[in-house]
Structures are given as structure tokens and as C-alpha cells.
Design brief:
It is built from 19 helices and nine strands. Among the domains are: 205 residues, no CATH class; 64 residues, no CATH class. A hairpin with a 5-residue loop joins strand 6 and strand 7. The radius of gyration is 27 Å and the shape is globular. By secondary structure, it is an alpha/beta fold. Helix 7 runs parallel beside helix 10, helix 9 packs antiparallel against helix 10 and helix 15 runs antiparallel to helix 17. About 7% of the residues have low confidence.
Length: 460
């Protein structure tokens, strides 16, 4: 006997081949996607961990409780979670209705098209691989083995440090990097007369190291922003299994970066395509179509459902609105070129126009005593800066390893001038405490205080 859940799954699966065929005819290019219906509790776990299976850590439990509270208060609901790859994986909440799942199927195919073709995603997949779910499960097994061998307390101390630094990677560097050169390049000497210059020209290597001495290169030879890689390779007493934990967290960060850096584009692209595919789905029953269109309106609305209170900018709403204008103005092929080549930084700066910002109500407004509303700031660059500020440097303060002293002291530098973001001293000291446990030498961080004065932070 079929349960209601079985019937719901059978219904949306009946429409899936037709939606996929329509997507291909419309020009979407994507790897196959495996769809699965899962309980909402599992959906929340995925939202918290970022992956269906991930290394265990207490911080994820804290996030899960927060997500659960929001869900029960009606502030958070997940319809789907999708993971790019070949094949891609999409999880649909078992509580979705048929109309919601029809929309989600089309939405996921938009995501799959984006992740296959966008250059940031392609670079990430070239380095991390196309099976991130399996890789993350392998990392979780690796952590479980480490706990059995070394104990939960030791493994948790390493994970505390690695996960506290998970955003401190340098995605401009390849995932697999060579170590720093052991020796500094020789300082060329300039002979001071014609005879010595002619003699040196006969054997250019003869004057390279006149006393057979080679100068060791400093560590790091330049300010190193990839703290996970640096600690994994240069912490004085890090054991092999600890190094592997840092590198596993780093690999997953390389996977998460394009998701983070293209959220507005990606969610907008998926929303544009689910709306377009729904309009052209003449095989859908009228009632299902109308309910799905209502779901679309709920997804891309800029304000809360029951209260006329502006939310933080909804990436679905903003991205969808920009893509509609791009397609309307420049055509679909131009939009696909933008999708392939850009990220949120260039997308928002190049495609969010003053007219669209005005239309979406993104400028700052003020109500006067008569109830009228007037714009008090129409500064597009400031608006773009406000939208993009949380995205700089993977959302983390710009901190680099500056120098390792003879006694092993690690000196870190916060680039506050470029960063434009201050540090929370208490949180920073806690992260330094985690870091010191794995560096096993003194650690200090240079930054500035609230008044701009130099400030040195050390672990408590």
C-alpha cells in the first residue's frame, strides 16, 4: 500500500523527464542530476554541515540547534539542496507539495547548468574533483579513524583550529602547491671594472656563490594568506594525521568558495530558469502550474511573507531581477557569456544599474511626518559596496602569516587597510588559542584597535 509520501514522489518523478527535455531544448547544458526525496531533519543537517556527510565537530551541532529554532519559528524552510558534480545530487524535502517540487526540479537544473559552465565552478571541480559528496564522506571516515587512534580530545583540538581557519585559503593558488624554495635566489653582484665583467661573462655561475654559501629563504618568503596550507606544511611539530585534517578542511573550502562567491548570480540564474521553464511547461496541469507560479513569487519576493518588513537583500530576488534585465537588454547568449565568465563582484558592479536599484527599492529611503517617502541616498557605488562587503576574502578578515622567528614564534598580520573590516578581539584571541595548540609555539597577530592604534593580539 502506497503512503502519501510515496505518491508525492511518484508524481514529481513523472514530470521530471519532461522538464529535463524542455531544459535541454531551451539551451541548458548540465551533467546528469540524481534527485532524492529526504526528511526535513536531514535537509537541516545538510544545510548546517554544507554536505550530506561531513567530518564531525561540535560547532556543527551549535549551528543545527540555531537552524532548528529558526525552522520551528517559521523563519527558515528548505525546499532543496543541490551539489554540483558528475552526476550532480539534489535532495528535495519530503514535505514539499507537488507544485513546490515541480518548481524545485526546474530550479535545480538551472543550478546544474550554472555549475557546469561557470569558470569558478569549473576551476574548483578541476582541482577538487566531480565527486565532492564522496570526498567529504572519505574525509569523515578519515576523522573517525583518527579519533579511534588518537582520541576525541586530540582530534577535536585539531579540528577546532582547522575549522576556525576554513575561510583562510588563497583560491588564487592551486589546490596542490609545491613547498617554498629552501634557499633564497642569489643576489647578483656587479663587477666594478671591465676585466671582472668580462671574466664573469665567461662563467656566469662562478660569481654566484663566491664562498660556497647559500642563504636560506625566509618562511614564508611573502605574506601567506593560505593559512590552512601554511600550517599543514610548516607547523613545527604537526603530525602527519594532523596535517591531513588541515588539508581535508582546505580541500572542502576550495569546493565551497565558488558557491559563496556566486550566490547572487547562481540563485538568480536558477530562479530565472525555473520561471522560464514553468511558463513553457504546457504538460503541467493548470492547478499545478498556478501553484508553482505562486511558489516562484514566494521564492523571489524581497520582503517577509506575513510582515511588510524588508529582509537583508534576498539573493534570489536580486539575482533574478538582474538576469531578467540582462536577457531583455542583451539577449540570452550574452547572458550565458556573463554566467560563464563572472562572479558576484563583477555581476553586481557591472549589471546592477541605478534604474534597477531604484525599481527594486535598494536605495535608502526615509518617511517624513506626512507619511510621504523620499530617497535619502541614491549612491550606486556605495550600494554595491554594501552588497559585496560581506563577500570579500571569502567573508573572512584578510590575515596572512608574516614571519616565523628563530624560536618558532608565528607572526600574523591583519591587512586592515585593504580589508576594510575590523577584528573582534575576543573572537580573534580564541582563534589564536586554537592555532597555538597546533602550532605549539607562541603566536601573535598584528592589527589595529577601534581608534586605529596598533594592536597586538596573543592567545589568552
Amino acid at each position: 500500500m502506497s503512503t502519501p509520501a510515496d505518491v508525492a514522489v511518484r508524481q514529481w518523478r513523472e514530470f521530471l523527464p519532461q522538464i529535463e527535455q524542455l531544459a535541454v531544448r531551451s539551451g541548458l547544458e548540465y551533467h546528469p542530476v540524481d534527485f532524492e526525496s529526504v526528511p526535513e531533519t536531514f535537509m537541516m543537517e545538510i544545510a548546517v554541515y554544507g554536505l550530506p556527510v561531513r567530518m564531525p565537530h561540535w560547532s556543527f551541532g551549535v549551528r543545527y540547534i540555531s537552524q532548528l529554532i529558526q525552522h520551528r519559528m517559521g523563519h527558515s524552510r528548505l525546499f532543496e539542496v543541490v551539489f554540483p558534480g558528475n552526476p550532480g545530487r539534489a535532495y528535495l524535502a519530503a514535505g514539499n507539495g507537488l507544485a513546490e517540487n515541480v518548481l524545485v526540479l526546474a530550479h535545480v537544473l538551472g543550478h546544474a547548468d550554472f555549475s557546469r559552465n561557470n569558470l569558478l565552478f569549473r576551476r574548483s571541480q578541476d582541482q577538487v574533483g566531480m565527486q565532492i559528496v564522496e570526498r567529504a564522506a572519505s574525509h569523515a571516515q578519515q576523522i573517525a579513524r583518527a579519533i579511534e587512534e588518537h582520541g576525541a580530545a586530540r582530534v577535536e583540538a585539531v579540528l577546532d583550529a582547522a575549522l576556525a581557519l576554513e575561510q583562510h585559503v588563497d583560491v588564487d593558488q592551486p589546490l596542490v602547491r609545491p613547498p617554498y624554495p629552501e634557499y633564497a635566489p642569489p643576489q647578483p653582484t656587479c663587477p666594478d671594472d671591465d676585466f671582472r665583467r668580462r671574466f664573469a661573462a665567461l662563467d656566469p655561475d662562478s660569481s654566484e656563490h663566491p664562498h660556497g654559501m647559500r642563504r636560506r629563504a625566509p618562511v614564508p618568503p611573502f605574506p601567506e594568506r593560505d593559512l590552512l596550507w601554511f600550517i599543514a606544511n610548516y607547523a613545527p611539530e604537526l603530525e602527519g594525521w594532523e596535517r591531513d585534517v588541515f588539508l581535508a578542511v582546505r580541500e572542502e573550502s576550495y569546493y565551497f568558495y565558488p558557491v559563496f562567491a556566486t550566490q547572487i548570480m547562481n540563485e538568480g540564474w536558477a530562479s530565472y530558469w525555473h520561471a522560464r521553464l514553468l511558463r513553457e511547461s504546457d504538460f503541467l496541469p493548470q492547478e499545478t502550474y498556478l501553484d508553482a507560479i505562486k511558489c516562484h513569487s514566494d521564492v523571489v519576493r524581497p520582503i517577509a511573507a506575513d510582515q511588510q518588513v524588508a529582509l537583508a537583500v534576498n539573493p534570489y530576488h536580486l539575482g533574478f531581477s538582474i538576469w531578467e534585465k540582462v536577457v531583455e537588454r542583451d539577449g540570452l547568449e550574452a547572458a550565458r557569456r556573463v554566467m560563464r565568465e563572472e562572479d558576484d563582484f563583477s555581476f553586481v558592479r557591472n549589471r546592477l544599474t541605478p534604474e534597477l536599484a531604484d525599481e527594486l527599492g535598494l536605495f535608502r529611503f526615509e518617511a517624513d511626518s506626512t507619511g510621504g517617502v523620499r530617497v535619502i541616498e541614491r549612491d550606486l557605488p556605495k550600494l554595491q559596496d554594501a552588497l559585496l562587503a560581506p563577500k570579500y576574502n571569502f567573508g573572512a578578515p584578510r590575515v596572512a602569516a608574516l614571519h616565523v622567528h628563530v624560536d618558532g614564534t608565528l607572526e600574523l598580520q591583519h591587512d586592515h587597510a585593504t580589508d576594510g573590516r575590523g577584528l573582534d578581539p575576543e573572537r580573534s584571541r580564541r582563534v589564536l588559542e586554537y592555532l597555538k595548540r597546533v602550532w605549539r609555539r607562541p603566536v601573535k597577530l598584528h592589527t589595529v584597535g577601534a581608534a586605529g592604534q596598533p594592536l597586538e593580539l596573543v592567545p589568552p
